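Q: Here's a chain of 191 amino acids. Please give me its 3D structure as tokens.
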Amino acid sequence: MKRTTLALLPLLMWLWLALPAQADVQEHLQEQYYDLQVASGESLSRALDKASPIRENGQIYHAYTRWKVQWNFCWREQRDGRCQIDLTRTQVNASITLPRLGGGDAQQRQRFEQYQGALREHELGHYRIGQAAAAEIDAALLATPEYPSCAELQQQANQRANAILQRYAEQERQYDRQTGHGRSQGAWLTE
């Protein structure tokens, strides 16, 4: 039995080396809520402005998405020191913060549901940008060419991933400019 196992070892090693590099993108989205109390006849917009905990650069937002992409990779070092990526694991973790209505009359509740649906859709657009960033980072890591050393490989792969991350951060800012922070998607209260 021992002899068979030892005979199979070179074959298993050859199969492992012949396998293409492996990728693994994991996604996690969490929704969290803050409470909004509105009295019958009260302006939803003003009530949201008062209740929202989301304040950035002097602005009040009714919803917010925060995403973060993290990546790891494993490499294979050749006898001569050359190094190549074998395996990647990329994660995008995100949280969407939305309001949750308490109180209000039937008309306010109906208007809030429409508004919250549009807000959620806008925030999911932010999340989709994070998902695209993670997918592109993972693909770029797998496509990283072989380098003369593992230290150089690690530096170059991380530089590539960070450049992609910066591009998607700018894409997210453009998304908000193009949609007016969701206004063109129906996330707007006129009252």
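Q: Can you summarize the key feature?
A: The longest strand covers residues 83-103.
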